[in-house]
Amino acid sequence: MSVAERYDPNVVTDEDEARELERTWSSHRGFIGFFTEVGHVPIAKRYIVTAFVFFALGGVEAMLMRLQLARPESRLLGPDLYDQIFTMHGSTMMFLFAVPIMEAMGILLVPLMIGSRNMAFPRLNAYSYWVYLIGGVLVYAAFFLNTGPDAGWFSYVPLANPQFSPGKRVDVWAQLITFTELSALAAAVNQITTIFKHRAPGMSLNRMPLFVWAMLVTAFMIVFAMPAIMLASSYLALDRLVGTHFFNYTEGGDALLWQHLFWFFGHPEVYIIFIPALGMISSIITTFTRRPVFGYMAMVLSLVSTAFIGFGLWVHHMFATGLPQLGQSFFTAASIMIAVPSGVQVFCWIATLWTGRLRFKTPLLFVLGFFFIFVLGGLTGVMQASVPLDLQVHDTYFVVAHFHYVLIGGAVFPLLGALYYWMPKITGRKMSERMGKINFWILFIGFNLTFFPMHQLGLNGMPRRVYTYRAETGWGDLNLLATVGAALLGVGVLLFVANFLWSRRFGELAGDDPWGGDSLEWSTTSPPPGYDFLHLPTVRGRHPMWERDENQPVVVGLRTDRREVLVTRTLDAEPDHREIQPGPAWSPLFLALATGVGFVGVIFTPWGFPLGLILATAALVGWFWPHKADRPLLEEQP
Amino acid sequence: MSPVPVSTVPPRIDVSELPTTAHGPRAPLWWGVSGLLAIEATVFALCAVTYFYLRGSQPVWPPPGDRPLVGLATIQLALLLLSIVPMHLVERASTRRSLRGMRFWLIVCTLIGLVFLVLRGLEIALLGFRWDSHAYGSIFWTTLGIHTIHGLTSTGENILFITLLFKGPVEEKHLLDVQLNGVYWYFVVLAWIPIYAILYLDPGVIG
């Protein structure tokens, strides 16, 4: 409906409307409210806090490894515990921190940025969170019972086969994967639908903020990458539980099949973590240069082509397995090619920074830190695309240095910058700028001290995943330096947490738009109400907050006595219909618990699967069963 | 409250007359189901990849003496293809908003689905090799198992909708749900075509 009408102010006042919306969109109180929550902001907050708890646990594991490696022949950790700790560190950081926190930022910000009231599927959103939480709690419970996974975060067979890894450790890992990937897949479908169907009128695809584009591209990557690891971990679980032979050479299986399936997921995974960070960077740069990002179209096309090329590189993780020469050449070329879209984006940002009026606030500092660290990590990545060099440094600390530069530089620095930037939408307050700047420099120096020496250690031949080394190797000094750096890095993270806790209570009240941001999340209050916007906004450009005038229409006519949202058309975001969304519900938690019973059950017996299926069916019947009469009925009734 | 000068009231887009349901790609749920099917299709495609990967390293495939039950599988394929007709009529009935039509054809479709599941159970009982016999058995049973679970859940969903259509209250939005249930059923049927070709025709034709 494109007819803009003058509104008759006599009907209802904004205050009445706000009061009614508040009542309709509020959660239940207390204990029940906690378990039945379906709002996107509260769920995103839980995601963020949970992911940070796992980040802290993964960080403690990293510190333990650094302490163990600080000097030669240290006896702090034995080889068995060290194996569990490096596996837990990798698995935690990838599956329980990096992917979930990026999803969490999307769940928090996308509905606000596109001017909607919630995610498209509120209960699915809650389900994603519960499944993620159960998976994380499972793996840590097992770890504290000395059943922590110990075959590396990629659990290569034959090491992970039943004959070389007896016990339940690898099974726990396989189920961790099943839990977290299920959660990510559910979140991705939710994100795609939200972005396609719930944009504010006027926000055609070519006006979406770059962060929303980044989340859309990421969600599509998840949809096509994560099934590979779910299937692979199911094969592994079947091999271990019921004696199938997928990876058993003697019965016609193949160990390399695991590596192919794992990296067909594993390489896109890097971009699943990295692309949301690119979106955050674009948002931060736009705001702190006070100008639109240079080359919007080039940026979007770069994101999309990164996603496509990202699916064609997986074999570069397998150069050491003895592949045909043609395969090596193809994947070398693809690995070098992916530097092109990344380069385009970096140059677009440089052009933006060059021509903008810079304000050196903490978020921008983190972005500038990203440039330094990520470019170094990207360069070592291009180096390793070359097979002869890759064979030299494969499985050495050079690779450890490379991917920490890429992942911490490419994802964690932008993420911390993003949290400084968007904290007002989470707590209503700004984090301390002074502490933020100190925070940045400690993290930046600590990071480089920790990981730069690892390049040299790797070139000197120090292998990954060994619990100690002899003094004659001469690796002691650089390792000690790395451990000192890690301590500084730890201090930096603690400082971030301290700043968060302090500012949550005492920080400067932010107001709606503390930075002069360009996108719609800054048009509502900080933190936003349960219904996000009093009147859904409309937009007529890429930077709605900078293009606002008093004649910009708002949407009226959504009912306030039930949870109504506006659905718009996929391409041009013209209003299409109203949708009634469900309110607080127990069913997501029940379904997640049923899923949990099934997934944990199959670690011990194949009957766990039918049991979980039956429980899940019961939960799903409860989920879908109509119980409210306040919906339009068919004329013909039974 | 003092009257607001008209010039400061922003123009408004009134959406109160818009409908509360929509069909096809206009509806968010259509995108949700499509996303689910994209995931499921990827899983089946990767099963096929696994099949050919394992096949590539074997001199004899399938292992001597172990053959799939082509006849039984072909009857299943025919039944599944047949079931598309009543499911399509369910969809037609839903666009006519005919409760009776939806009920009738959904029951027909579900009955065909149940016969299919019985035959599938028979096939599983009669197979001459097991999942732990060899890698061929592993991928065969896994692919067949995943498809059977889809058949079971989809038939369960059909029964759930039949119950709903008899018990009520039937909401406007259930029309969309019934249609998307059909889309899921079509997927279960269509996914079976390439899987059937790979699992049952490949060993005889190429192997």
Describe this structure in words.
The complex is a heterodimer of chains A (638) and B (207). Chain A has helices at residues 14-25, 30-36, 40-69, 79-113, 122-144, 169-197, 210-241, 255-289, 296-310, 325-337, 339-355, 362-384, 387-393, 397-427, 433-459, 476-506, 587-604, 608-624; strands at 4-5, 536-537, 554-556, 564-568, 575-580. With 638 residues, chain A is mainly alpha-helical. In chain A, strands 2-3 form a two-stranded antiparallel sheet. Chain A has a two-stranded antiparallel ribbon with strand order 4-5. Chain A is globular and about 80 Å long. Chain B has 207 residues and is an all-alpha fold. Chain B starts with 11 loop residues before the first strand and ends with a helix.
List the helices and strands and how they pair.
The complex is a heterodimer of chains A (638) and B (207).
Chain A lengths: L3 E2 L8 H12 L4 H7 L3 H30 L9 H35 L8 H23 L24 H29 L12 H32 L13 H35 L6 H15 L14 H13 L1 H17 L6 H23 L2 H7 L3 H31 L5 H27 L16 H31 L29 E2 L16 E3 L7 E5 L6 E6 L6 H18 L3 H17 L14
Antiparallel strand pairs in A: 2-3, 4-5
Helix pairs in contact in A: 3-4, 3-5, 3-16, 4-5, 4-6, 4-8, 5-6, 5-17, 6-7, 6-17, 7-8, 7-9, 8-9, 8-11, 8-14, 9-11, 12-14, 12-15, 14-15, 15-16, 17-18
Chain B lengths: L11 E3 L13 H29 L13 H26 L3 H28 L8 H33 L5 H33 L2
Helix pairs in contact in B: 1-4, 1-5, 2-3, 2-5, 3-4, 4-5
